[in-house]
Write a structure and sequence with these properties.
The chain has 156 residues and is α+β, with helices and mostly antiparallel strands. 22% of the residues lie in helices and 40% in strands. The protein has helices at residues 3-15, 48-64, 88-92; strands at 20-30, 33-42, 73-77, 98-103, 108-116, 120-128, 133-135, 139-142, 146-151.
């Protein structure tokens, strides 16, 4: 089993039965000092204290199991705005927020996430008119058609 899969399994056991879930594990850097980044999220977000707790437990498990024979860097955090939404559960917590959705065919849609269904989302796109914004009825987008989605930050 690859190191990434072993780390995913260790984190999954820690998060089982909680409102938190694993988003992604990335192992980068040079082989002599790899950097392991673990992104977790929760149905209502995740605190820095929770990230620290998981980091401590995971670090201890990596040491006990001697999974990494060299020095390494471990980072556990919640996904930032630079990370795309990856799982269905992440869409739910962003209802009411503005998203940029890139479809697999290359089409880009920007609008407010109004509803999340089992296999699709409803996105209300704003169409710019000459003097005011017009709102169209929400468009249903199948999750299977989405390549990536980013939450857009508004500073208004």
């Amino acid at each position: 089993m690859e190191l990434k899969e072993q780390i995913e399994d260790l984190v999954a056991v820690q998060l089982k039965g909680s409102p938190y879930f694993l988003v992604n594990v990335v192992i980068a850097g040079v082989k002599s000092v790899p950097k392991i980044t673990v992104w977790i999220d929760g149905d209502e977000g995740v605190s820095i204290d929770k990230c620290a707790e998981i980091s401590r437990k995971l670090g201890n498990q990596l040491e006990e199991r001697e999974l990494i024979p060299t020095a390494y860097t471990l980072e556990v955090s919640s996904p930032g705005i630079d990370q795309p939404l990856k799982w269905f559960r992440q869409y739910k917590q962003h209802t009411g927020r503005k998203l940029k959705v890139t479809l697999k065919d290359g089409t880009i849609k920007t609008g407010t996430l109004t509803h999340v269904q089992e296999d699709s989302i409803l996105l209300t796109e704003e169409k710019k008119a000459k003097k005011k914004s017009e709102t169209e009825p929400p468009a249903e987008i199948k999750l299977a058609d989405i390549d990536k989605t980013f939450v857009l930050v508004s500073f208004i």
